[in-house]
Amino acid sequence: MNVFNHFRDIIKVEIETISAAAGADGAPRISVEPPRDPSHGDLSTNAAMVLSRAAGLKPRDLAEKLAAALGAQPDIQTVDVAGPGFVNITLDPAFWRSRLDDILQNGEAYGTSTMGGGRKINIEYVSANPTGPMHVGHARGAVLGDALAGLLTKAGFDVTREYYINDAGAQIDTLARSLHLRYREALGETIGEIPEGLYPGDYLVPPAAKLVERDGDKWRNLDEAEWLPALRDFAIDEMMALIWDDLAALGIHHALFSSEREIAASGAIDEVVAGLEKDDLVYVGVLEPPKGKTMDDWESRPQTLFRSTKFGDDVDRPLKKSDGSWTYFASDIAYHRDKIRRGFDVMIDVWGADHKGYIKRMQAAVTAVSGGKATLDVRICNLVHLFDGGAPVKMSKRAGTFVTLRDVVDKVGRDVVRFIMLTRGNEAALEFDMAKVVEQSRDNPVFYVQYAHARACSVLRNAAAMFPDLKLDDSSLSDADYGRLSDPGELALIKLLAGWPRVVETAAEAHEPHRIAYYLSEIAAQFHGQWAKGNIDENLRYIIADDMGLTHARAALVRATAIVVASGLRTMGVKPVEEMR
RNA sequence: GCGCCCGUAGCUCAGCUGGAUAGAGCAGCGGACUUCUAAUCCGCAGGUCGCAGGUUCGAAUCCUGCCGGGCGCACCA
């Protein structure tokens, strides 16, 4: 149960009783939130201030009426009117304690929401070019997309995880030529320095050997035109296998891989552009060179343009290259229309920071192609600055200090990578210190949260050892006498745990999975803090040797903490640990 | 020149889509262990939310204009 939504519904009913006009008017603007200052109660609503005009009352007067009505509701202990017309509600502690039932009975499914109503939503993420292994920067987009997918699933959406393979264009030819060189090397030739313009990485050496094994020297002395298509296919398959491995190391598995080449081959691009032409959204025109930027090779010439300015873009965008072939943008339009046709009217793309300038045109295209019915949200991932023990890791392909995603995952573990990548908002740059993230200390958020879960499991193990007769399965725990959980710290922890459904919904709505990481840190802090109180006052320990009933009640709280932390971690794609030694 | 993002404590960052006295970690200072794992916790100190206007009951949050930083800016993907 989302406690806040629950009482929001009750408040709406009461408002309608007080004033039908107000009830009909601004219901959507009513917010019910936890007040920042806990001394203001458990819930705070702005309803009286937002609806005073429609009700024909002064905010404070409406607030007083609302407060009187709410005071008679079950589960509500006190209601106060404060400031300009806030209505602050304090709930009965028994109501909060009963949230433990909700948690224990649902297990890790606690927090699952019906907000999404099973609506289809498509998340396209990673989409790294198949020209080599993934590097650290890719990891952030991969984790963000995957965690967002997990979050939206938890929030009740029908999520499809999708990867767009950019397997067309000149880069793939470059890949194929680079492979051919390595292939000749594998056949015994001395190739020397890799020429400028080809990919120098030695990750093409194993595929080259594999190609020799499969085809012998059959491609060796042919003209490029004869071997290029075959080597292209071979190279793409090899590179995608590499990327799949890297993703699997992060625990990421897309449901669908869409190929740019297949889109192009299907004629979808011609089709979608023809459709845009029909709507008068395509024309031939001349673009102005950008001002304030030196463009030596600028050549003013007529181009086939998409009227993206009609949908808020800054300039119209080219659909054709100078050689007459389609631009990447054109095939991306066709691709997104394909997604729309597959029934997705809500789409999310996760891109790197260098693609920021591409957002408007893509959103314009989605609006145009769908007739305004589909929406595209683009989540941009800022840079990851890699450190090792406080020293920046300089990455250079030439110097051979290039750090791949795989290197980092192998070094610190996939759960650490996943969690740390979500400890910042996606638009903020992120520092990733490979030494620090495996430290067992307070300033390592992964450890701090994992330790809370492990500590909770440890308490339950100890409780079982001390009281062999105590039933500690979830259903027995939900029969415990919660009334004995009366310490303010315990109640505060319960309230935090009860906030999980709301965190899921607000984070899902904002498309911001990093909020889960912060929320889990809060729980961990409250839990560790409560633990420490037991070192000062033995009566506050979770396990009380001569009081099995109290231990049972506290075990229920501890178990509920473990459940919520585990649920949060799993939503982020991180595996909770039961022990840390 | 234009567009987007960012600017919050000494440092790294949250701030729940406009709520009340702006929060946390680190660093600093002072405390707490014959432990249910101190791998932790408690306290103190630290702020003109870049600057200036505006919108309103109310602004770190929205609008405008500056200042500073980042990214991008036909045909690559």
Q: What does the model show?
A:
The two termini are 36 Å apart. It is built from 21 helices and 15 strands. The protein is globular and about 85 Å long. With 581 residues, the protein is α/β, with parallel strands linked by helices. Helix 7 crosses helix 8 and helix 18 (488-497) runs antiparallel to helix 20 (514-536). A hairpin with a 3-residue loop joins strand 3 (76-82) and strand 4. The strands form four sheets. The chain has a five-stranded parallel β-sheet, with helices on both faces. Strands 1-2-4-3 form a four-stranded antiparallel β-sheet. The chain binds one RNA strand of 77 nucleotides through strand 10, helix 16, helix 19 and helix 20.
Q: How many E-type strands?
A: 15
Helix % is 40-55%
Note the overall shape: globular
Briefly note the structural class of the backbone: alpha/beta
Average pLDDT figure: 90
Radius of gyration: 29 Å
First-last Cα distance: 36 Å
Strand line-up across the major sheet: 7-6-5-11-12
**CATH architecture tag of one domain:** Orthogonal Bundle
β-strand amount: 5-15%
**Full CATH superfamily name of one domain:** Isoleucyl-tRNA Synthetase, Domain 1
Instruction: Specify the biggest β-sheet.
Output: 5 strands, parallel
- Can you tell me the CATH topology of one domain? Isoleucyl-tRNA Synthetase, Domain 1
Low-confidence stretches: none
In CATH, what is the class of one domain? Mainly Alpha
Relevant terms:
5-stranded parallel β-sheet; RNA-binding; 4-stranded antiparallel β-sheet; globular; 12% strand; Isoleucyl-tRNA Synthetase, Domain 1; Gyrase A, domain 2; 581 residues; 21 helices; alpha/beta
